[in-house]
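Second attempt. The first submission of Metallophosphoesterase had a stray character pasted in from the spreadsheet, which I only caught after the job came back as garbage. Lesson logged: always re-copy from the clean sequence file. Corrected sequence (171 aa) follows.
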Amino acid sequence: MAVFFTSDTHFGHAGALSRFRRPFASVADMDEAMAANWNATVGPDDEVWHLGDFALHRKPDAMAALLERLHGTKHLITGNNDGPATLALPGWASVQPYTELLLDERRLVLCHYAFRTWNGMYKGALNLHGHSHGQLKGMPRQIDVGVDVWDFRPVTVHEILASRQRTKKRE
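This time the job returned cleanly.
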């Protein structure tokens, strides 16, 4: 079982195409590509932490069908665009605004929003967040896990850390 993180899918949101410069011809293309990328990355027995803004402008039954279609056990860290219908979807294993995890001996602080400070930041804890769509200059040990940053798919902590190492080597 692997553990993945993602955020800001904005399934069904036409405004996401232009506002976040997403390279899709239509909302249907965007939604289908992100669902395909998710299922190509995440296995049925994996776990996914979605750090908010799952879907907009979709009816509850359409959101539920989409969530059911996506692989893995899914947890929602609530975002500013997650309304009551999203929070009530039966496909979430848990719903909360914030959580801290210990994964492979690394502390993770999860929230939709980036923090200036967070629990354990000086002891190696990572702050995983969304909301900024790759537009916010990060701090050390702070990572935007949004789909706009990670090729429209969920990502593991190992991939995040490997990417940061490649970036440091180029600097």
